[in-house]
Amino acid sequence: MHLASSIIFKKKLYFGVLIVSFVFFLFSYFFTFAATINLYSKNTSYEVNSTFNVDVYISSIDQAMNAVSGVIRFPSDILSVSSISKSDSIMSLWAQYPTFSNVNGEINFQGVIMTPGYKGLFGKIATISFKPKKIAKATLSFSSVAILANDGYGTDITTGSNGITLNITKEKVTGSYTTPPITSETTNIIVTPEIIEAPVITEYPKEVYVGKPFYINGRASMPNVLVELFVQDEDYGVNKHLSTTDNNNKFSISISDISKEGLYQAWVEFISTRGIRSSSSEKVSFEVKDPEYFKLGILSVNIVGTVLLLIIIIIVLLLLLCYRWYKYIKEKNKRKKMSCDVENNMFGIGDTKLTSEEQKAIDQLKKGINN
User: Fold this and answer.
1) Are 262 and 286 in contact (CB under 8 A)?
2) At 267, which CATH number?
3) How far is CA 224 from the centre of its chain?
């Protein structure tokens, strides 16, 4: 009986350990934030033979990193790399300077940050200058990435990477226009002003963080026209951002130059192919916050998660201890009853006087049962 109880207890103990391990894994999954690497471009649409930049950013919120390596792939038939700038990079040393191949459509880099490493949002690694070759959609992505923690072991803390897709449009042709001479046949020309429908902002964030790029999307009434986005801060300072509509009249404009907190307003206008400016769209508002609030929020979540995990572990251990104590008391009472039953069955119940040998035999039997 004792052996069977021991086996049952071990099985329940193993089951309890599995529960604790599962809970720990679950909380680790939801409350662990590691490192990501991203590509970012100011606009999503560029003209053939123009030059534009793509920034490589890294974010490691809850753990410092000290090394990163990666390979970026790009379509070499659509884009070519002009140069790679390391200006304003968070890298201290380069194990491999950023290199590129316009034949293979590949960019390689390996950088190191000295102790204490880097911990934060949107740390710039490098800036890549591209030149479009033809009209097409170009997708830039990471084929391999490794972000290592500054923990003395080189732990890989990479959780993801994000590329971008760019729309390459035709090159604008500029030239002169000669007004035809007015003759008797053209004196009755009636000029009707072109009426242009105002553009509409369809998507924008309600809250953003200082230094974090974001997009404002919308649509106009014409394809392939110049779109101007105006962003106004609380001091009435206005910054202008340019883009173009695609073949479906849609536009997407990236903003990354907001450097202070506050409430902002944004609106758009576009200019038709005949040079006529539309009226302004309805203004939208959004709030820019300091990323420190974001970090504090993550810290609070981590603290709450750790406390909940400890409470669950303590509850499981207490339940296991209570179960073990209950089994011990039950087994003890059972053995006590067994010893009494053995004595009564062997020598009967009553005032029968036992010899010393009989009493000694009973005591040894009780001792064996209790043990």
Assistant:
1) no
2) 2.60.40.2550
3) 33
